């Protein structure tokens, strides 16, 4: 009679046979041989293993320590029986149950196996010796303590004060914050001050005051996350410039770091939330030459002395004339590569002379004062600096990524 026939006739046959088998017999068979076809049957099997583990451990501890040689032999035997790499019960379960499990049962077997592996730490040499030296009082469920990684209490064993303590893992500063602070430092050194403003912003500050007319495509739903018809999640940090001009007037040298939001589909270079740093200088006799000189200095400070800068004309509603700053490619040194599309240059930020209309909105007389401004994406700078190819990594909170900085 084959296994499957038996199954149909007497459904509990397998369960009864299983319960009569010793743990060694069970672990030498596959789940199929044992007729364990459901997560419940798997659970029952593993429960049997756990209780065997616990009773063998308790038996050893109850048997008393004996002399040192006897003790270490007993410990070694039990440890090897369960944990030996070859032929130990845990690795037999791995071989015969987990690896040979049918696909649909794999998750259940895997989970149960992982738990067992944790529990089985209570029969490693160190744990057993510790408990034996603590006497029979230690025959409490040490398996529980082992799974939590707890140390033995003073009651359980002798407390060894010479052991090193547990170190608390230290966090580190997020790479985006690091880069933002680095940029801030450079401009603070030039006499700029830091300004901040609300991330939930009025349509007036986000668009109108910056000379972005109703018809501008950036005002479409596609790019902007609207809270209601009058309020948006700011699409850039530029509203802070208007607020600062209103608050402080001219002359003004400020840096506006912060979060911005756009209705972009996330991919390796776009995220719905990202960080910007904008700079604004307003004073009498400010010219494009000041802008060029400042940004050239900044690029060298940030990327290194060998960096060359290049300005090309562009268009932004809030600056006139407008430009893009490119730097010689940080990856190939300007020779041409895949990242700079063989041009040797990488575009890093937009900039320009502040549009007179924008100064007027900030309450500053454009006849008397002029100014320049720039805006850059912090994630993009961090990606160039650390050679990271996916912006999403910054926002996923994966410690394996973050602890590298
Ligand atoms: Zn290149």
Write the SSE topology.
Layout: H1 3-9, H2 13-20, H3 23-27, H4 31-34, H5 39-62, H6 68-83, H7 89-98, H8 106-119, H9 125-134, H10 142-148, H11 175-188, E1 193-194, E2 200-202, H12 203-206, E3 226-228, E4 231-233, H13 239-248, E5 252-261, E6 273-283, H14 288-303, E7 309-316, E8 319-328, E9 345-354, H15 356-361, E10 370-377, H16 378-386, H17 399-402
Parallel strand pairs: 1-5
Antiparallel strand pairs: 2-4, 3-4, 5-6, 6-10, 7-8, 8-9, 9-10
Helix pairs in contact: 5-6, 5-8, 6-9, 7-8, 11-16
Give a structural overview.
- It is a single chain.
- The protein has 405 residues and is an alpha+beta fold.
- Helices cover 41% and strands 17% of the residues.
- The protein is built from 17 helices and ten strands.
- Strands 1-5-6-10-9-8-7 form a seven-stranded mixed beta sheet, with helices on both faces. A three-stranded antiparallel beta sheet has the order 2-4-3.
- The longest helix is centred in the first third of the chain and has 24 residues, at 39-62.
- The model is unreliable at 1-11 and 135-150 (pLDDT under 50).
- Bound molecules: zinc ion (ZN).
- Zinc ion binds at residues 329, 331-332, 336-337, 339-340.
